[in-house]
């Protein structure tokens, strides 16, 4: 029987390394995903997770890709599950199927509104917030390991950081075993978030989400999906190298390496890599060496 992520987190003598994949949507995307899935076996992450796209039909691709990764030898695969476009019955069917397929961990999310919509609208008998999905899963599958999302720079819809932390605590009180954070580029943001969580009596492990930086364009693209501050030094250095992609990549990945080393040094229980199905960044020699040192 495989250890769940929570069990790994509580027994590991070193920080865990995890990688997030997303189900490809195009033929080109499929090629990129297949290559990344193949190449990343060399990194041998402690677990991988698979996102769930918006729009109700998203659970199928997540299950298919999760199963594919499992067959490829990734021992611990965690599918994501969102409440978008899903009734309570649909979520019961989806999550039952994931558990029956052998997945012992699920990342429970509310999800973002579908493209073109500004606000999240639950289905008439669906869930309004991720905490309700966590409670539902905890009751239906008591042994399941449940991850939830945390936002060091505050979720964009939350009025303030205290309110956001209160809602995060509701997810943990409902049964979440660990938190993975949204990406951030200033480490003090993570350490401050962990302090605020601990003050609010949130005691579960908090895995920092790290985006290996490769260009200014990549940062701009990501900021269309999530809110995070870009440090002025990084911004300046990326702007200065914008016409030299190799130099820009070096600037970005050195930032990532510094972030990673400081997070580990500061006691983070793991590093969750947002690789966006691009394995090659991980094989940048200095970054790979740094990750290998963490893995021991
Ligand atoms: P919630 O925890 O429900 O929070 C949403 C908002 O509601 C927050 O502002 C919160 O403060 C507020 N809130 C919570 N409870 C209450 C309450 N009782 N009353 C009032 N306000 C409340 N999206 C996808 O579509 N697919 C994915 O696979 C995916 N994976 C992700 C993985 C990670 C690690 C992270 C950090 C994010 C991921 N997302 C994904 C994005 C996520 O779905 C969005 O950020 C979404 O807007 C919020 O989801 P949540 O689960 O954090 O929601």
Q: Do you know the CATH architecture?
A: Alpha-Beta Barrel
CA-to-CA gap between the ends?
24 Å
The total number of structural domains is: 1
| Proportion of residues in β-strands | 5-15%
Q: Summarize model confidence as the mean pLDDT.
A: 94
Unreliable stretches (pLDDT < 50, length at least 5) are none
CATH class: Alpha Beta
Q: Care to count the β-strands?
A: 8
* Class of secondary structure makeup: alpha/beta
* List of distinct ligands in this structure: flavin-adenine dinucleotide
Classify the fold: give the CATH topology. TIM Barrel
Task: List its salient traits.
296 residues, alpha/beta, TIM Barrel, eight-stranded parallel beta barrel, 8 strands, globular, binds flavin-adenine dinucleotide
